[in-house]
């Protein structure tokens, strides 16, 4: 009965490849997020969707494209992977976008070689 | 945009002592301040949060204080235990509903 789940847990790939990370939540939440945690543990918001609509789009390269097929799913596709993309990517969800607790998924550890 | 600064970056305390972590923020419109605990290799998990209409909130050994005038908020952990060892992050939700995180505090509780 995992609340927020992500696949895969680990992803090792070569520079230039395209990869996707999937996220699902079974909490009935309306809002989902993608965060990036770099090697210094700094957590930074990338995107947020509310009811399948993009509401936060931080300054990330356009190689990163989120997609929300429905309220329970938020995927992240990354084109032309670069060494600097190596990080842990966390999905999160909340009941709504304003002052609600955000529940994080287990993270996807991406290593670009 | 919002900027959150967190201190100290590392904190080592003896089991049973108290630990205090402090954060400052820049956007006076920020109104929601959660604290997350992240154990090694795990996801961040909310431990306590505070909204701008209160100055203090307590949950057992954990308390958070908020000073809106000075734009700072603090986490207090009393009677620390070895299982409190983790990285703690403060965060502030800015006027565009983005959660901006501090840089984290690595807390070590020595048995």
What does this structure look like?
Chain A has 113 residues and is mostly beta strands. Chain A is 0% helix and 56% strand. In chain A, strands 2, 4, 5, 6, 9, 10 and 11 form a 7-stranded mixed beta sheet that branches. In chain A, strands 1-3-8-7 form a 4-stranded antiparallel beta sheet, with no helix packed on it. Chain A is globular, with a radius of gyration of 13 Å. The model of chain A has no long low-confidence stretch (mean pLDDT 95). With 111 residues, chain B is mostly beta strands. In chain B, 0% of the residues lie in helices and 57% in strands. Chain B has strands at 4-7, 10-14, 19-25, 32-38, 45-51, 56-59, 62-67, 72-77, 86-93, 99-101, 105-110. In chain B, strands 2, 4, 5, 9, 10 and 11 form a 6-stranded mixed beta sheet that branches. Chain B has a 5-stranded antiparallel beta sheet with strand order 1-3-8-7-6, with no helix packed on it. The model of chain B has no long low-confidence stretch (mean pLDDT 96). The A-B interface holds A 40-45, 48, 55-56, 58, 90, 97-99, 101-107 and B 31-32, 34, 38, 42-46, 49, 51, 87, 89, 93, 96-101, 103-104.
Write the layout of secondary structure elements.
The complex is a heterodimer of chains A (113) and B (111).
Chain A: E1 4-7, E2 10-13, E3 19-25, E4 31-37, E5 43-50, E6 53-57, E7 64-70, E8 73-78, E9 87-94, E10 103-104, E11 108-112
Chain B: E1 4-7, E2 10-14, E3 19-25, E4 32-38, E5 45-51, E6 56-59, E7 62-67, E8 72-77, E9 86-93, E10 99-101, E11 105-110
């Amino acid at each position: 009965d995992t609340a927020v789940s992500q696949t895969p847990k680990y992803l090792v790939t070569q520079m230039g490849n395209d990869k996707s990370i999937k996220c699902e939540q079974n909490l009935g939440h309306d809002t989902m997020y993608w965060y990036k945690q770099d090697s210094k543990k700094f957590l930074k918001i990338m995107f947020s969707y509310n009811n399948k609509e993009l509401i936060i789009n931080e300054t990330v390269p356009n190689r990163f494209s989120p997609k929300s097929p429905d309220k329970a799913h938020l995927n992240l596709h990354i084109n032309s992977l670069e060494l600097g993309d190596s990080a842990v990517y966390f999905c999160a969800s909340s009941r709504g976008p304003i002052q609600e607790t955000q529940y994080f998924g287990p993270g996807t550890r991406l290593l670009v070689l | 945009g919002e900027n959150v600064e967190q201190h100290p970056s590392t904190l080592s305390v003896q089991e049973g002592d108290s630990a205090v972590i402090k954060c400052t923020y820049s956007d006076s419109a920020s109104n929601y301040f959660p604290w997350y605990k992240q154990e090694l290799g795990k996801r961040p998990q909310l431990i306590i949060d505070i909204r701008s209409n209160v100055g203090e909130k307590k949950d057992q050994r954990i308390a958070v204080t908020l000073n809106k005038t000075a734009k700072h908020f603090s986490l207090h952990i009393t009677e620390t235990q070895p299982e409190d060892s983790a990285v703690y992050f403060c965060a502030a939700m800015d006027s565009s509903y983005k959660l901006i995180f501090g840089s984290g505090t690595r807390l070590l509780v020595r048995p």
